[in-house]
Write a structure and sequence with these properties.
Chain lengths: ~180, ~375
């Protein structure tokens, strides 16, 4: 690490770049929620962090606009969902399906089993359906808010959710998790 | 989907995502990435100019100091005593929103809006600015908000039925035309202005983030105000502590502003940041933990930052091996803070507040492994 005075000199670059006033505090406050949402969308902790970084970097670029938006979180969500979809498409081409992604934390065996089962069930869903489920049952968003995040109508959200839930209902992984 | 399935899926989702450990916020990497995007967009030649612009803006921001807002138009009228904006009883718990000086005695006046005398929000005269806060267990189920109104608006309607009257309050030589109210967290907050004058747009209030599902009434960050974006985000900043550990340098600094008291701990190439509520001279101490190695205990040093009460001359940190660190608080913008680090092999066992004569003011063992707790000495 460099001299602390150099670090001090670096601080303003983080916290008050042009158009970036307050970005640091915004990023600090949103980071945990973004990582959790991204983990729900991807099932991969490291990809989740990368996507959360991408979303905040894009918010940084458009900070003047974001900071004045009525709902900056909606803007971030949309970037995050788009980034996860792009990543999913790239991954589908370049990677083979692997083992279950690691669970976020250790815990009692039944809890870990349930998390793994839900992750497996979510992985069976196409990205858009998965996003609808996570935005509804984790973020607790309305159809309209989910539609805004996905760039589709509330009606499409309802139909995607209906299909996703039908698949989850028949998911053996989820059933095993419930039994655990 | 049945109600039971619905509930089960929410519960399972919470189980999956709630415990995803928040890692250190990679601020530098994010900003670097953002700059990279900008440069790519602008092109390499223009990029150099863009960076020069960043440096210039930074210098101006530092030289500018405290935000100087244009004076607001406040109607002529009597000033509410004690700076009280609004008060009442919410579900049996008394509450009071007030404008007051939040600086330690002997320092220049700093105006803030407080809830029950603490958990302050910076304020300056500017119609249209607004903020909300929730306190969690101290005042469960309710949020509290304020809006600064122009002179020709007398009040607002909250959630369609509660008509709230604006008052004039004074703090640190400025007057504020302001309305304050409480509202249940179970219902989305909707504020309307009756017959808004020309140039006055609709009130858009910030939303308090609650523990998912959002119908729950437990705020994610009790005591932290959420402001409209027009509020200046940074009022002041300063280094609280720095040093060496195992041959490596570390630094803890404070950025105080609209997001509360935000701290960053930089060491061994990692950074951890967290924000906590801004207390008042008589309010509780906010103790913030910044573990570099979170969530793996012992995998990195932990930084601690404490906003201490004015009478604190030293903060004594007792570590798990019995060793003691004696920390002298530093003043940033009229308020006292103490910061130190605990090596990864140890943990913080106790904090002791000492006055100028070395007498114990208070002590606590209720210390956070990460995030913040509030402690009333």
């Amino acid at each position: 690490m460099s001299d602390p005075r150099d670090e001090l000199a670096a601080v303003p670059d983080i916290i008050t770049t042009d158009g970036g006033e307050g970005f640091s505090a915004f990023a600090v406050s949103r980071w945990p929620g973004l990582v959790r949402l991204a983990f729900g969308l991807t099932g991969d902790r490291w990809m989740a962090e990368d996507i959360a970084q991408t979303a905040l970097a894009r918010a940084y670029v458009a900070w003047r606009r974001v900071s004045r938006a009525d709902d900056p979180d909606a803007y971030l969500r949309r970037i995050l969902v788009n980034a996860s979809h792009r990543r999913f498409r790239a991954r589908r081409v370049t990677e083979q399906p692997g083992d279950l992604p690691e669970t976020p934390v250790d815990g009692p065996a039944d809890l870990v089993g349930e998390r793994a089962a839900l992750l497996a069930a979510l992985r069976q869903l196409p990205p858009r359906q998965r996003a609808v489920v996570v935005l509804r049952y984790w973020e607790d968003l309305t159809d309209a808010q989910i539609g805004a995040a996905l760039g589709c109508s509330p009606g499409t959200v309802r139909s995607q959710l209906s299909r996703a839930l039908a698949k989850l209902r028949t998911s053996s992984a989820l059933a095993e998790g419930d039994d655990a | 989907m049945t109600a039971t399935e619905d509930r089960e899926l929410r519960r399972a989702m919470r189980g999956l995502l709630q415990d995803v450990p928040p890692s250190a916020v990679p601020l530098e990497a994010i900003v670097r990435r953002g700059k990279g995007i900008r440069l790519r967009r602008a092109g390499a030649a223009v990029g150099g100019l863009a960076l020069a612009g960043i440096v210039a803006a930074t210098t101006l921001a530092l030289a500018g100091g405290r935000h100087q807002a244009a004076p607001a138009t406040v109607p002529v009228g009597p000033v509410a005593p004690g700076g009280v904006i609004a008060q009442g009883v919410a579900d049996g718990h008394p509450w009071r929103l007030a404008a007051q000086n939040i600086a330690d005695p002997g320092y220049p006046c700093l105006p803030g809006i407080t809830i029950n005398g603490t958990d302050a929000d910076w304020v300056y005269p500017a119609p249209g600015t607004a903020g909300v806060v929730a306190l969690g267990p101290a005042l469960p189920g309710f949020g509290f908000g304020f809006i600064q109104l122009p002179a020709d608006i007398n009040g607002v309607t909250v959630n369609g039925h509660d008509r709230v009257q604006a008052v004039i309050v004074a703090a640190c030589g400025d007057r504020y035309h302001i309305v304050g109210f409480a509202y249940p967290l179970t219902v989305p907050l909707r504020v309307t202005v009756v017959n808004p004058p020309p140039g006055w747009s609709t009130v858009t209030m910030p939303v308090i983030s609650t523990q998912p599902p959002s119908a729950a009434t437990t705020p994610e960050n009790p005591g932290l105000w959420i402001n409209t974006a027009s509020v200046p985000d940074q009022e002041a900043s300063g280094i609280l502590a720095s040093g060496h550990l195992s041959g490596q340098e570390w630094l803890i600094w404070l950025m105080t502003g609209a997001a509360g008291d935000c701290y960053a701990f930089n060491g061994a190439g990692n950074q951890m940041g967290s924000c906590g509520p801004m207390s008042t001279p008589t309010g509780p101490e906010t103790i913030v933990a910044l573990p570099l190695g979170f969530p793996n205990p012992g995998s990195g040093a932990t930084g601690y930052a404490v906003q201490v009460s004015p009478g604190t001359a030293h903060l004594k940190a007792v570590l798990s091996d019995g060793s003691v660190e004696l920390v002298t608080p530093r003043v940033v913008d009229g308020r006292k803070y103490a910061a130190f680090i605990v090596p990864s092999s140890l943990r913080l066992s106790r904090l002791i507040w000492l006055d100028a004569r070395g007498r114990i003011i208070a002590s606590t063992t209720a210390l956070p492994p990460y995030g913040y707790v509030q402690f009333q000495p």
